[in-house]
Amino acid sequence: MPGKRSDVISWDEFFMRVAFAASLRSKDPKTQVGACIADRNHRILSVGYNGTPAGLDDDSFPWADSDDPLSDKHSYVIHAEANALLNYRGSLKDVQGATVYVTLFPCKECAKMLVQAGVGEVVYLNDKYCHTQDGAISRNVFDRCGIRYRRMSLTQDALR
Ligand SMILES: [Zn+2]
Fold first, then answer.
1. Per residue in 99-110, pLDDT tens?
2. How remote is the CA of residue 80 from the centroid of ligand 1, in Å?
């Protein structure tokens, strides 16, 4: 009898692949972000990606940066982490100590939201904004609130 498969992917890779798959749903032409929340028993609680609020037609939406806040996409888009939290239909108690897998290091607004929801750890793929001022605030929030955060990498094969 053959032994069990030993080359299975890790939980980290599994959840990050789910987060990445969610990012593929994003309509944002420039930045696609996905998030996956997993509890301490390796169960997926929720997923999300960056997008417009439900009911706001993303076909007629101006997917651009603009100096005019009324025409700037940032004024309207909900980030992946926030959507993952909002998509969860269970009790927020379940999120206590959970791990959030996100394809891009969280902005300061999402960092605060994740802390307040009770998340215990943040695992990210891309650190593009980690060393910006916004990222420094996120790190400050995580450090001061005792939230662990770490970067992981995935092979290109895993991102297809
Ligand atoms: Zn954010």
1. 999 999 999 999
2. 7
